[in-house]
Specification:
Rossmann fold
Length: about 325
């Protein structure tokens, strides 16, 4: 074993060698999965993703129907029973997947629809690199506009994980810029709101946490180039952290301490607070990126339940 050491360079860069144990407070299931070094966000169409979706359906019964809203493909995830007082509510999900794939539409929507008892419309927005900014925002804004025809804005919540969290904030900026009523709340889950800079935790962690960690190429001065194309990463429409966030809806931010986007999530939370927004930050010890995709793990259930409670409270329940 390499001995613990820390070397600080003149610019503040740290060269670290250190043994990092797993906290004893984690569930046995989380311990076991962390030990494999496997991803917590399975690739779209992979056997691992299919297994997690089947597990989600067994834990959280729902009905799933494909549909088209405002010309955009969506999936409507319907809980078995919607109470009378919730029939005018809807949740809109923008899935994760690095803007290039769908790694989370079902895993983000099935638990939330079941736990809230409210339908979730998950938007299958256009993906990079074939479609660059603002295609995904256009799709999300179009679906939201369609939902406004049958729902009041204060009965709608928009949320997403990773790329979908970023798209949630970008969509809120678009709605604000165009004078469209904002939703009752936002869910900004382990996501970037600044595409011109990398956060500190990006250098520490990969999607599985400490496994597969890579130092980002900061010389490029930008991130997610597949989505951005030639667009200016400091444009507030791309990077909502540079937008005037005053008047933004209440926002729940969620990440983990081994999450490559913990810094990004925390930085956006601070920006919301500076703007006077009612924003909460929930951080899970030792959890990596999007750990709630592993639906059978207690920490994933806790995250989904916290998200559901927040949305219900924002909708008046």
């Amino acid at each position: 074993m390499i001995p613990d050491s820390v070397q600080l360079l003149p610019d503040g860069t740290a060269i670290i060698s250190r043994t990092i144990p797993v906290p004893d407070t984690l569930s046995p299931q989380a311990h076991a999965h962390l030990a494999t070094g496997a991803t917590w966000a399975p690739e779209d169409g992979s056997p691992e993703q299919k297994d997690e979706i089947e597990r989600a359906l067994s834990m959280y019964p729902v009905q799933i129907e494909p549909a088209t809203l405002a010309g955009v493909l969506v999936k409507i995830v319907q809980p078995p029973h919607v109470s009378v007082e919730k029939r005018d509510c809807v949740l809109m999900n923008l899935h994760g997947g690095g803007f290039v794939t769908d790694s989370g539409s079902m895993l983000e929507s099935i638990p939330i629809a079941s736990l809230t008892g409210i339908p979730v419309v998950t938007v299958l927005y256009r993906l990079a690199p074939q479609y660059t900014f603002p295609a995904a925002v256009d799709d999300a804004a179009a679906v939201y506009g369609e939902l406004l025809k049958s729902h009041s804005s204060h009965k709608i919540v928009i949320y997403g994980t990773s790329a979908g969290g970023a798209l949630t904030a970008q969509t809120a900026v678009r709605l604000s810029q165009t004078g469209v009523p904002l939703p009752a709340a936002l869910g900004f889950f382990t996501a970037p709101a600044d595409f011109s800079h990398y956060g500190d935790t990006t250098s520490f962690f990969g999607v599985p946490g400490l496994a597969e960690a890579r130092i980002p190429d900061r010389s490029k001065g930008r991130r997610d180039s597949a989505m951005l194309g030639s667009h200016d990463p400091r444009d507030p429409a791309v990077s909502p952290i540079y937008y005037d966030l005053h008047g933004f809806p209440p926002t729940l931010c969620v990440a983990g301490t081994r999450d490559m986007m913990l810094s990004d999530t925390a930085n956006f939370h601070r920006a919301l607070l500076r703007a006077g927004v009612d924003a909460d930050l929930m951080v899970f010890d030792a959890m990596p990126h999007a750990h709630w995709y592993m639906v059978g793990i207690p920490e994933a259930r806790e995250a989904s339940e916290a998200m559901a409670r927040y949305f219900l409270h924002a909708l008046g329940f």
